[in-house]
Amino acid sequence: MPFPIPDIDSATAVPSTPVEKAPGRAAEMHFNASLDVALQILEKQKSKDETTDTEPKLPSPRLPTKSTRGSQEPYLATPDDLITDSTTCCSSRASSASLTEVNEEQKNQLEAAATNDLGAKHAKDTEEVTANCQVRARIPYPGGHFYLHAYHTNEDKKEHLAIVFGDDIRSASLEEPREGETDMDRKIRGASTGALRRLVSDDIASRSMHTTDAANSDSDVDQIDEYSRCFELDPAEVFAASRLSVVDAPLVRIHSECFTGETVSSVRCDCGYQLAEAMRLIQQEGRGVIVYLRQEGRGIGLLEKLKAYNLQDMGHDTVDANLLLNHPADARTYGSARAILEDLGISKMRLLTNNTDKIRQLRGGRKSNLDVVCHVPMYPRWWTDDSDGAQLSYFRHLGLKRDVMSEADRYLQTKAKRMGHMLSFNEPFSPKFLTPRAPTSALYTETNN
Ligand SMILES: Nc1nc2c(ncn2[C@@H]2O[C@H](COP(=O)(O)OP(=O)(O)OP(=O)(O)O)[C@@H](O)[C@H]2O)c(=O)[nH]1
Fold this sequence. Notes:
Blueprint: H1 8-11, H2 23-51, H3 79-84, H4 90-94, H5 104-124, E1 131-141, E2 144-153, E3 160-165, H6 172-175, H7 183-189, H8 194-206, H9 221-231, H10 235-242, E4 251-256, H11 259-263, H12 271-285, E5 288-293, H13 302-313, H14 318-324, H15 335-343, E6 348-352, H16 356-363, E7 371-376, H17 381-384, H18 392-398, H19 407-418, H20 440-447
Bound molecules: guanosine-5'-triphosphate.
InterPro entries: GTP_cyclohydro_II, RibA, RibA-like_sf
Family: Belongs to the GTP cyclohydrolase II family.
Domain GTP cyclohydrolase II: 245-364
């Protein structure tokens, strides 16, 4: 069920403060801001320790700095380490008793650092990004097939991907002729040849298929009422959003790489589930795109994400763990995603997400002509229905009853509380908090007409 997008500027918990700076300078500012915050935290912790030493303390994490790495001697960082060694691993700079005891005030400081990060990130994302599809190949999938598109962009050196359902969604850059290439060369990279080439080129030139009116029949009134009530939205708006067709505004998911969640089925997060669910929903409609960005660990990379996991095991949530490692809470940008969607001829979309920052960034940017007409929430199915066969493997890993808050639930709760994600929770965690299940089946069957 798609939703009109609420007022995300006021709803989000992570405010956006645009910073008019060049990317390099922005990164430097981020580093300095984070360093300042870490220093302040250490100073505060030190003076607190000197004045009130009555509170019981958790054991302090002992992280080696560059000078002691390799020795068996445990080492506790001092503020001096923070200023003298800017090349040392971030975690060593932030290590102190404060890692295990981040109080409210410190949390606010970390939050402020996160805000600076977001401003810097938005400034960076105004750079013009172009995407070039290198190859397209058909991938058999239960119930049909999709086309995997591998892209190069001028933003980084990674191979970003587009998982495309629907034969009519074509990449303009892939179809462009390359100097000296034969028909066989074109076939090998998945571009069209002969008569098909002319057809596809005409199609790409007109892109007329994206302007068809919505044509679905009545939606389920009860479900619309339920959603309107739950999210305090105007039922008329919800109804209008539910009538958008797959041709007019296809389902799109912008997904960020998560090796742990997707490849080794970790249930510390909901990433693996979300990818599978997005593929299921889009395949059900028969048309849509998943842009798969190689922004592992919200852009900090797998290695740093694993360090963040260890901090989480010491009691920090995903946001604080990133900040304590001197990374932004979320380092991702969406310039490549915008460029890929534009290359695929997608101008309007229903975005599968709960993330307000993602919506804002997709709509923003200097060159963006993209229209996110509504968002389709990604509720974890295990909140509402644990009998769905499609999710069996997930539940096998999860192995939990619904009244227990899993690690993935905690991860989702942090996203809602601290990152402005549109997910609702009741406290304390109990089955009562369950949000009504998205009435996707009824709606998506209708839009298939
Ligand atoms: N740094 C860090 N990244 C994580 C962690 N858990 C998952 N990720 C990464 O988070 C990214 C997915 O982002 P999420 O915040 O879960 O979701 P989202 O894409 O922002 O929002 P939705 O569109 O609503 O799913 C992937 O790149 C994961 O690798 C973690 O604990 N720390």
